[in-house]
## 1
Amino acid sequence: MESAAIHAAKEILFLIGIILLFGSFSGILARKLGMPDVVVFLLIGMCLGPELAGVIKVKADSTVNQLILIFGSSYILFDGGAGLKLKVLKEVWITILIISTVGVLITTAITGLAAGWLLGLPLITALLLGSTVASTDPATLVPVFKQVPIKERVAQTVMSESAFNDAMGAIVTFSIMGVALGTGGKFSLGSAAFGLVSNALIGVLAGAVLGYAASVLIAHEKFGFLMEYAPLVTLMAVVGAYLSAENFQASGFMSVFVFGIMVGNKDSFGFKMENQEQEKMEDFITTTALIMRMFIFILLGSQVNFALMGKYLWSGVALVLVFMFVARPVTVFCCALPDRRAKWSLRELLFMSWTRETGVIPGALAGILLGMKVPGADVIAAVTFITILLTILIQATTTRWLAGKLGLLV
């Protein structure tokens, strides 16, 4: 008679095999249909979940799910950061800074007020819903821009925003949650602002230090003795960057993103790899990021609660429309127009207004609220998943089409 540990191991192996099998066919199908693969992964996950086929039964709060969520999102963020160019970021850093901070507050306020009116929620619960969905999702956006060739500064601005606004979204959500749970007396604007700044600085510092160290080890002329093991170095360093920042109560996602920027721009620091080794590392990163996308979005789709979503479907859809067509455009125009240095065109602003998929990070925040039994958490979770589904299915699938219409494809 096999032990519980062996039984659990077999279940995990079965899960891995199923996700890789269906994920591979889904990737091929997405390429044939000309759409981002995350969309097909999400739909396949919904079909395989306990609500329909019942093949995948992984709870959102399980250790396996959290491990895949944390490492997968981290590696996808690293991949996104590695594709950014410092010379481009220098042109648009003001927009990124404003939209990642003030932009989250604007989105929270507009979405929260609309939620209070459409869903009849108390103001504090409505604002909590607004803050939960206010963060854009790097795990969704990075793969989309990897597959759709968009004008560099537009793509990199949106991807950078999705990485940097994670900390702000979490701080706003937990601050409002404190009020909702009756601990609001401990909240102050000063402490929240200090928390945000320290969160950002520690995350950036941890990512920069580890990114520079990794660049030395894999590409330095004298000290790059790990050049042949560069792919493995990226795995170790992604874990190290995330945990280093999290241990100091900072944003691990921001840390791995900055780590990716450092490694991707190692040439700027005088480090250069041989072409063969560089290609080997890039192939490894691309393949690993693809596998992480499969696991994250198939699992995310399998955890959709159709009954809960159905209860708030139409009011939730109405709120998502406000979110997409009012909150996001107002946020983009208010945060990007003051940046005179970037000189954003109307076409670029319109594209950024449309491109802001919601995904893993808001889903994780909604799960935390459910676990802590915050008042109104069931409504927040239902509407958050409606938002995730609609933004990914509608916005991600139309990214290439809209970019073409606006003349932003390269």
## 2
Amino acid sequence: MARSVKKGPYVDERVSRKIEGKRPADTGTIKTWARRSQISPDMVGFTFGVHNGKDHVDVFIVDEMVGHTLGEFSPTKKFHRHGGKVQKELDQRLREAEITAAKAAKTAGDAKK
């Protein structure tokens, strides 16, 4: 962890004020830009909309997330996929397999009639 133990966890004031005195069932998504704020035990059960630079990603807080930061659960980069000739060939094989499976299912359905 980057923050010293003697300093304690960092929880943004705005985030703590937004959940103060509220129940998770009554509140909807709580929007926040405080990605570096650590998750405390009193946040469990709430849903936070953590900003990733473009939009807010809904993050439902569970017990295992306590001690981590909100930003860890809202990725800022989107992985598209690795491309190239090999990937195109794999995609083509998958499409052909789906087509043959659909044809086989159709012929099996016609044979039953």
